[in-house]
Task: inverse folding
């Protein structure tokens, strides 16, 4: 039975390469991962003033993560870090319920640049080590897909054989990690 995965798209860009990457993964790994793509576009700005009574967008987001068996972060890189919308979403996850704590999680990221969101993923890893977040993060399987625009066709399928082979291995590793973490 496929693992129910909440895939948090860390960008609000309509043509996000990370959204396309996760959509590709959703189709390719359907037998292993039941991926629910979560947009963070409607998540209101976090404020301590409203944390105990989260607004609808934030509550819907938190519930989707809470109800998943695992989490996938898809991370773009903006100015050497994560986008503000993703930081806001992680702030909500750290409050009023600790929805991410102990949940098996992995991270992927892509960019048009050669580094494939490596700096953003380093920052995200720092953020989620917060005791109020602390997922069980898949170790040693960093997915940094650089020059993503050259590795996809018009149907948003990854055509680069090395990238697909690597993703296949990471997903296999995550499924094993998830099964061992239960």
Result:
């Amino acid at each position: 039975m496929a693992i129910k995965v909440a895939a948090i798209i860390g960008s609000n860009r309509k043509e996000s390469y990370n959204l396309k990457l996760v959509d590709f993964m959703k189709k390719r790994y359907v037998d292993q991962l039941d991926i629910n793509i979560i947009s963070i576009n409607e998540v209101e700005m976090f404020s301590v003033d409203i944390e105990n009574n989260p607004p609808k967008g934030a509550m819907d987001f938190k519930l989707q993560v809470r109800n998943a068996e695992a989490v996938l972060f898809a991370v773009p890189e903006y100015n050497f870090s994560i986008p503000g919308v993703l930081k806001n979403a992680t702030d909500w996850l750290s409050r009023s319920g600790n929805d991410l704590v102990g949940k098996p999680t992995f991270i992927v990221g892509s960019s048009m640049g050669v580094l494939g969101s490596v700096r953003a993923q380093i920052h995200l890893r720092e953020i989620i080590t917060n005791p109020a977040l602390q997922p069980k993060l898949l170790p040693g399987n960093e997915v940094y897909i650089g020059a993503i625009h050259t590795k996809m066709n018009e149907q948003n399928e990854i055509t680069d054989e090395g990238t697909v082979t690597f993703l296949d291995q990471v997903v296999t590793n995550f499924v094993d990690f998830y099964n061992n973490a239960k």
Summary: The beta strands are 3-9, 33-38, 70-74, 104-110, 136-137, 143-145. Helices lie at 17-28, 56-66, 84-93, 118-127, 161-181. The longest strand covers residues 3-9.
